[in-house]
Q: What sequence folds into this?
C-alpha cells in the first residue's frame, strides 16, 4: 500500500489545516498511511519585514512546491489565498474543500469596535489591502505591520504593542479562538476579503493521476467555483497579486455575485463594486471594467510603486 506524504508549513494553524484534511481523507475511507513533512517556508522565517516587501504571499508556497517537484511529498495543503493565479503547470489544485468564513475580524483591547477606537489608535496588519481599507474608513487611525502566527499576534496585542489587530476569521475559527477574541466581524460589502480567503487548496503534481483521484473526493464544487471566479477577476486587473485588491464571489442557485474592491495604499481612494449574473467571466469583467473606468489601473500601478 502506498504511503502518502503531505507537505505542510510548520505553524500551528497550518498543522491544524493539514490534520483537518487528513481526517477528512480517513472519513471518506482512504486508508493509506499518511505522513506529514513539515517545513519552515521563507515566509515563516522572515518575520521582521512586511509581506509585500519580501515577495508577497508566494513566499509561503515556493518551498512546498519544491518538495512536490522533487517528489519528496505527494501533496501539499495551502491556504488558497497564498497561491498565485498563475500556478506552475507542473502542479494542479486537485481539491478545494468547503470554505470557512471568508471575512476579516477586528480584535481590540477591551473589545472596542472600529468606529469607537480613539483617534491615532494603532492597528496591526500584515496586509496592504487591510491597511488601505482601514485607512479609507478611518483615516485618523494608524496602521503598523505585524507578522507571525495568529497566537503570536494576539499576544502582541495583549502586550500593548497595538490597540487592535485584523485577522482572517477562518484561521480563528480553525483554532477555536473566534468566540474568545473577536470584537467585530468586518462585513464583506465594506471590507472585501482577499482572493480565496477562508479556502484551502490541496495541491499535487499534475501527472500524479492516482493522487488526483484520491484528493478530488474532498472537493467542494461551490467553493471551487467561487474561488475560480475570484482568481479570474483578480487576473483581469493584477496578475502579480501585488496591489490592495479584495475579491469575493458567492454562488446562490445559478447566480454568482462578485464583490471587488481596490484601495490606494494611503486609503484616500477606495473603490468598491459588485454585480450578479449567470456567467462568472461576464460578471468578473463587469466589475473589473467598472472600477477601471473609475481609475483602478492607476491605483494599482501607484501601489506597486509604494504610493
A:
Amino acid at each position: 500500500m502506498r504511503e502518502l506524504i503531505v507537505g505542510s508549513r510548520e505553524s500551528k494553524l497550518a498543522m491544524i489545516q493539514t490534520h483537518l484534511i487528513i481526517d477528512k481523507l480517513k472519513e471518506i475511507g482512504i486508508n493509506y498511511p499518511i505522513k506529514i513533512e513539515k517545513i519552515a517556508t521563507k515566509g515563516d522565517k522572515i518575520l521582521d519585514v512586511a509581506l509585500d516587501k519580501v515577495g508577497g504571499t508566494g513566499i509561503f508556497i515556493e518551498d512546498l512546491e519544491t518538495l512536490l517537484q522533487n517528489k519528496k511529498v505527494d501533496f501539499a495543503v495551502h491556504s488558497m489565498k497564498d497561491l498565485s493565479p498563475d500556478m506552475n503547470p507542473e502542479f494542479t489544485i486537485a481539491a478545494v474543500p468547503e470554505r470557512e468564513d471568508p471575512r476579516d475580524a477586528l480584535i481590540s483591547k477591551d473589545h472596542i469596535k472600529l468606529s469607537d477606537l480613539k483617534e491615532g489608535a494603532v492597528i496591526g496588519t500584515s496586509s496592504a489591502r487591510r491597511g488601505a481599507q482601514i485607512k479609507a474608513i478611518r483615516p485618523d487611525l494608524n496602521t503598523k505591520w505585524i507578522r507571525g502566527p495568529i497566537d503570536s499576534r494576539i499576544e502582541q496585542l495583549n502586550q500593548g504593542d497595538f490597540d487592535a489587530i485584523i485577522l482572517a476569521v477562518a484561521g480563528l475559527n480553525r483554532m477555536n479562538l473566534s468566540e474568545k477574541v473577536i470584537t467585530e466581524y468586518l462585513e464583506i460589502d465594506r471590507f472585501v476579503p482577499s482572493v480565496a480567503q477562508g479556502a484551502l487548496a490541496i495541491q499535487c503534481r499534475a501527472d500524479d493521476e492516482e493522487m488526483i483521484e484520491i484528493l478530488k473526493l474532498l472537493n467542494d464544487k461551490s467553493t471551487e467555483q467561487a474561488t475560480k471566479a475570484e482568481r479570474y477577476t483578480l487576473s483581469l486587473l493584477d496578475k502579480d497579486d501585488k496591489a490592495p485588491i479584495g475579491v469575493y464571489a458567492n454562488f446562490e442557485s445559478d447566480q454568482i455575485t462578485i464583490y471587488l474592491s481596490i484601495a490606494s495604499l494611503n486609503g484616500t481612494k477606495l473603490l468598491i463594486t459588485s454585480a450578479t449574473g449567470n456567467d462568472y467571466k461576464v460578471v468578473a469583467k463587469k466589475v473589473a471594467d467598472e472600477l477601471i473606468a473609475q481609475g483602478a489601473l492607476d491605483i494599482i500601478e501607484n501601489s506597486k510603486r509604494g504610493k
Summary: The chain has three domains: 4-97+199-219, 104-186, 231-304. Residues 4-97+199-219 form a domain with the D-Maltodextrin-Binding Protein; domain 2 fold (CATH 3.40.190.10). The chain has a mean pLDDT of 91. Residues 12-27 form the longest helix (16 residues).
